[in-house]
Amino acid sequence: MDVYVLILILAVVQSLFGVGLLLFGTPIMLLMGYEYTEALMYLLPASAALSWSQVKDLHKEKLNGGYRKLFFLICLPLLFVGMLAATHLDVKWEIKLFVTIMLVVAFIIRTNSSFRESLQTLMKNHLPIALGAMGLIHGLSNMGGSILTPMVSSLYKDKTKVLAGVSFDYAFMASLQLIVLIFFKGETFEMKYLIGPAISLFIRYSIGKRVFAFTSETNYQRLLNGFILANAVLLGINL
Fold it and tell me: CB count, 10 Å around CB of 216?
């Protein structure tokens, strides 16, 4: 039951920012004592369902075609490699440490305007490297969202277009992760994993879309920063 409450809360966050269920759900479930793979089996279906619903609703937003090609050619293959490494090696402590570091990095990036702008410019000018790093990091730790948000915001300024870009990437990444877990890792997909998607979709259409429409850019960036820092502190204490 605690997992479904977590999904309910984080579905609101992902409805706003395009990230949340994986970025925050992973460290929280590790804190709750879940194994990494088990956490993925709960979170990935919920995240994928919500992201695909955003892709459907925002499909009229025109996205950068060159970025899309690089995403499929570079990011997804490296995500696949990272997933295989994370699911076949006993690296539970290392994953916790890596997730903590990525959360701290994400907080620094988002709260230091000059550093964020410099990083966004660097990402825009070196998209293949940024996409490769994001794919590998997301495959290893589910923390690709810490890179995805500043990278997509370097391409677009309108918050709706940023949300469309982030949700597009997240939908494909979560779907590929599920394929790896089920067909390569041999995880069994149980009926209980379908409750999360139902919750996330219900929350997005009943609450999330309304909150997104009425939340200003400044306020939701501050909320996200606070959530990132809190998760980094909690997970760091639990190392």
Answer: 9
- Give the pLDDT of residue 92: 61
Q: How many CB atoms lie within 10 A of CB 190?
A: 8
Which residues contact residue 42 at a Cβ distance below 8 angstroms, ignoring those fewer than 6 apart?
Answer: 3, 7, 25, 29, 34, 193, 196
Query: Residues 137-150: pLDDT tens digits?
Result: 888 888 787 778 77
Computed on alpha carbons and rounded to an integer, the radius of gyration of the chain in Å comes to 16
Give the integer Cα–Cα distance in Å for 207 and 48: 18
Residue 103 token pair: 């959360």
C-alpha of 5 from chain center? 18
pLDDT in tens, 166-181: 899 999 999 999 999 9
Element (H, E) at 231: helix 217-237
Contact 15, 208 (CB under 8 A): yes
Q: Could you write out the DSSP letters of every residue in 157-193? A: -SHHHHHHHHHHHHHHHHHHHHHIIIIIS-----GGG
Location of structure tokens 């939908």: 171
- Under DSSP, the state recorded for 219 is H
